Each structure stands twice: as C-alpha cells, then as structure tokens.
C-alpha cells in the first residue's frame, strides 16, 4: 500500500514578477514501511518537495495522496491537523523550544491534538524512555548534547504515531558518533514498521535507506520505482 | 481539537515567567494608568463623601444659608447686617419655610463659673436653631420663644464648654458669668471701653457633635460646635451687646425639592431689602451639592481621560513589544505550526499572553493604587474611598487594553507561513 502518492506535482513560486518553477510535474510513490532517502543538489527542489510532503505547503498543481487521502485538496487551515496526526518532523537544527523541558517539548504535539495532561505525560515519558532519555525529563534542551537533543526531537516526531517520519538532514549538525546513534534509531523505527523519509547530502547516510531518490531541477532522475 | 483556554493561560504564564524583566517593563504604563485612575477616583469619591457627611452634619440638604457676600465690594457702601424689622419681614414673607434662625455672633467670650473660666464662641439665636441644625440638647432644654420675648438671661452650652466649666457636675440651673467688653466712640470722638459682667442661667447642654476625623490632624472637625454657647437673640442684642447686628440667617425648607425655589425667593427678598446691593450670599445646600457633584464629575472625567491616554500609550508600548517578541520567536511559531498548532492556536496563545500581561498590570496598578492612597490619606489626612466598582472598572479597562492592542500582534503571529517561519534564524 502506498503511504504517499504524488502525481504530476507542480510548484511555482513568484519572486516579485518572476515565476520560478520549483517542481515540474513530479511523480512519486512511497510504500508503507519503506525507508527512503532523498538526495539532490541545493536548488534541485528537494526542500520544496519536503515541505509539500510535510503538508507545510501546498502544490500549485497535481495531486498528493497521503494515506489514501487527497491532501492537495485540503484547505490550508486544516493542514495543521494532518501535520499533527500523520507527520513527524525531525530537523537538522533540532528545533526544540528552548524554554520548555524535554518532557514538555515531547508533549507538545499531543497538546495540539487535545489529549489530556495525564495521557500526555504518560506518553511522553514512555517515548523518551524508548530513546534512552528517561533520566533527563526535566532538563532544558540547552543542558543536553546535540545527539541527545536530536533524540528528543525524534521522540517528539513519533509521539503521535505518525504515518510518515520526515527527517531533514538529521545528522547534519552532529559528530559522526552521535550521527551514527541517531541513524541507528531511525533504523530501529524502520524495522518496527515506520515509514522513514530522509533528506540528506551524505551518501553514507543515504546508503542505509531501502531506496535512494535523486532529484534534479524539480524532477526525479533516479529511484522512482519502489525497491 | 483546539487547545483549551486553560492551556493557553498555562503557556502564557510560562512565557511571561521566562521573560520576567521584559514583562514587568512592558506593563509599566498599564500599572501607572490603572494606578492613577484608582487614586484620582478614590480621592474625588472620598472628597464627595466628606462633603456630603459634612452637609448632613450641618442639618442636611434642605438648608439655606444667608451670609455676608465676601465677593462684594463694601467700599461702595452698605453693611451685611439685618435689623429685627428686616428679619421679621423676611420671616413673614416665607411662611413655607420649615425653620428660621437669625444669628448674632459675638465671637469668643469669656464665661466664668466659680473661678473657672472658658472662652466659648457665643451666639444669639432663635429656638428654630435645633431644627435648622438638626441638633438637640442632651440635658435640659433649648431656648424657647418665651426666652426671646422676655429677654431671659439664659444660656445653652456646647458639651465641651459645659465640661470645661462644670466638670462632672450637672450644670442645669447653675449660673455662669459672661464678661463683655463694649468698645465705642463717644460723641466727643473719644474711644471708650466698658466692661460689664452678666449672670446667665444654664438651661441646657447640647449633645456632643462628632465626625470621623479628616482635614484636621485626625481630630474631630466638628469640635468647634462643642465649644459654642447660645443665648436668646433678643438677650444678646438688648442686654449683652447692643452694638452687635444680625449677620447670618439660617433657613430650612420643607424638603430638598422645594429648597432651590425658596432660596431664589429669599435671595429676591434680601436683594430688595438692600436696594439691589448684593451684600449677602444666599446658598442652598442641595444646589451646592449638585454643583459639587457636577464639578467633581468634570474633574473625574478630565483625570480619567488623562489616565486613559496613559493606558493607550501603555497599550501601544505593549503592542510594540509583542510585535518584537513575535519577530524574535518566529522560529518557535514555525515549530509549533509544523507539529500541529493551528493558526487559531497561535493567535490565541499570543492574544491570551497580551491580555494576561495587561491584567497583571491592572492588578499591580490596583495594589500600588491602594498603597498610594494609604500614603495620601495618611499624609494629607483626607478621606479616600476606593470602591469595589472602581476595582472592576480598572480590571476591565486593563483587560480591554490587552484585547485591543493584542489582536494585531496575535493576527501577525497566526498568519506566519510555516515554511518561512522555520527558515528564520
């Protein structure tokens, strides 16, 4: 079953009077449970693709099905709920809220789902235990190492059991040791049946994926067929 | 699915707490605005209450006073005095008046009793004084018409005067001496001073006048009344001090409604008697009260307007700081949007935060307003009256300022594009 299906996806940006086409009729399918790496030079359109897959942005033309739902037709105001329930983001720069402790950071998506405080706390503690941070619950992000911060970010991304895990250069800010640990976690999540989509520059990182998709000039040049 | 208000308030608290110094600086304008509204209204309110209490103590709002007009230029001729004929004429023209009391003031006079002496403020009055002033004797009786007709040598003492002269003894029926110095020029132009002592029988002691201390070192502002002594007006003029004239007239209307009409009538009468010269001022308590209310209304409006301007300035400052804060927290907003916050959640988060900040300012303003009022009341020894209603108004106003000036920044925050917000450094 395809968790993601993109067909003839077009995205235009207008920079003043100039129109820039970031994606030109892109087709892509990702199967549930797949581990996919997306590679491409900067300006290739991979960030735009990430934003659309992550429901942070909408395509100009074309169709995007996420879990069989045509999300390209969903109005912008309702995309927040889709992001909340179906997508877990992991960013290169962690993007934790600095004044909240890590437990509260992990609880945040559950708060926006409207879960009760008790359920939130329980779930956050459980998830943080699974990434090995049980002893750091009340620490602020600034008191943790980069690797630990990224583990918090992963915990936050999976706390709501999303359909896809979207990671943008998750090891880009880490040394090779902690980067390796993070990739181990992604591997484990993949083995547990999660769909992982990772944008990366690093061929060694990409090599861990089931399939590498290469993008150039707003179109896929390689890896469009599910392995 | 939306986050609850309680959740927003919780976020608001933690946001304000993380930025303590900034929050306090931000709300300074609101604190000052609310504080000044509180202080001004409480002082004006207190002054109104004091004046009202004062007027009630003087016999209520149906009272009319005829007194020397200090604004009149007496070098143009005329004296602010009535003779008995004029008084009788005025009385006959206003049968509708409930009470009528012409007064002759002799000033401080030395009263003596068995070697003790006391300087009392001595006046010649009529029986109606008890009605005009709503003041009754505690012991004995007040001056009666028969005392007037017969020029009786009787006196009614204020409570302090009685105590000073008699201590704990009962003064009723006892004699006091009054020494009166009469100064005059003889027909040959020589200055002559005669000293005469009269014996007066005490027939009554007035009840003690007391009002909560304000305007006089915490003492009883009505004490001057307790130091008074009263004799029949006829005795005063015919026996004690023939040179004295009636300089004051106290009238009481049946009720406050008829008081203004009666005042106009008396004013007319007095003016006609004095050939159109405004030697006297005729004032009715109810009209004075209305004027006072009106001018205190104008005063409060002006001060409240100034305070509102300072609140508006405070609001603009808060709006600015919220805009800067949102700019600074763009990335945080981006993250919140990415993990599922809706635009409305972000809008509410920042609006609630602004309202919380201004409400906090309101509360601090009320608290510091109270502190200032305490100081003012202590130092200036005036009555202040802060009411629950004022506190509500102050709170509503601060919440209102938060809502008005919080909307624009909150809309800005809610309308941020998640992609651009996440890209912000």
Q: How many structurally independent domains of chain B?
A: 2
Helix-strand category of chain A: alpha/beta
Tally of DSSP helical segments of chain A: 7
Helix content of chain A: 25-40%
CATH architecture of chain A: 3-Layer(aba) Sandwich
| Major sheet of chain A | 6 strands, mixed
Mean pLDDT of chain A: 92
Give the fraction of residues assigned to helices of chain B: 40-55%
Overall form of chain A = globular
Of all chain pairs, the largest interface belongs to: A-B, 25 and 24 residues
Ends apart, CA distance between termini of chain A: 14 Å
How are the strands of the largest sheet of chain A arranged?
6-7-8-3-9-10
What is the total tally of β strands of chain B?
10
Strand order, main sheet of chain B: write it out. Answer: 2-3-8-5-7-6
Q: Write the H/E string of chain A, N to C.
A: EEEHEEHEHHHEHEHEE
- CATH H-level homologous superfamily name of chain A: P-loop containing nucleotide triphosphate hydrolases
Oligomer: heterodimer
Q: Regions of chain A with pLDDT < 50 over 5+ consecutive residues?
A: none
Structural notes for this entry:
The complex is a heterodimer of chains A (227) and B (425). Chain A contains seven helices and ten strands. Chain A has 227 residues and is α/β, with parallel strands linked by helices. In chain A, the strands form two sheets. Chain A has a six-stranded mixed β-sheet, sandwiched between helices. The longest helix of chain A has 16 residues. The two termini of chain A are 14 Å apart. The mean pLDDT of chain A is 92. Chain B has two domains: 181 residues, no CATH class; 226 residues, no CATH class. Chain B contains 15 helices and ten strands. In chain B, a hairpin with a 5-residue loop joins strand 6 and strand 7. The longest helix of chain B has 44 residues. The two termini of chain B are 30 Å apart. The interface between A and B is medium-sized, with 25 and 24 residues.
